[in-house]
User: Fold this.
Amino acid sequence: MRVLIVEDDDAIAEGLAALLRAQGHGCDVCATLACASRALQAEPFDLVLLDLGLPDGDGIDWLRARRAAGLRCPVLVLTARDALADRVAGLDSGADDYLVKPFAPEELLARMRVALRRSAGQAEAVLRHGALTVDPAARAVWLHGQPVALRAKEFALLWTLLRARGRVLTRAQLQQALYGFDDTVESNALEVHIHHLRRKLGEGLIRTVRGVGYTIARWSEERDGAA
Assistant:
């Protein structure tokens, strides 16, 4: 998952970025709304974490304008403004959720998962794909009922592919989901993660579409192909 953090407090921004990177997510930090607008134009993001009191404007006005311009990804407001009127204004302006600082990291991660499930039209917290079961809250994976240990980037890559079942994701799209603008990425890092997932979960789960990218087929398609 690729997350855009819009926060002008360096300590808070760095803490959020460290939290998300430890989960295997790619993230970028913008300290101004102008920077955030440029980032959204340059790259696709799965989710935005938005402070409201930014140096160059109010996050509520910016969010309202972004939604009007077609921004579709979930946006979670993270702010010290705790008045009821502020919370209502944030939600009415297009926020998917509204958290008042300070908040527990575990709550933020849970609310992010809920926002992503809603955006994908997924009601159930645990995702099942044939013999594979994935619990994003526990960051746990089972294959045929047996636990499978995955590293953070491996889990993030698997989750990205599973959420896009039936679609082919390019190498660039997968790298964008795992890494931020400033991350140093080895040229074969993605292929190494794919190799490890295939070794742990079976060669047939992730398919290579030559010249395009990688995909996990919908479960019905896998069964039809095996018939």
In short: The mean pLDDT is 88. The longest strand covers residues 2-6. The radius of gyration is 18 Å.
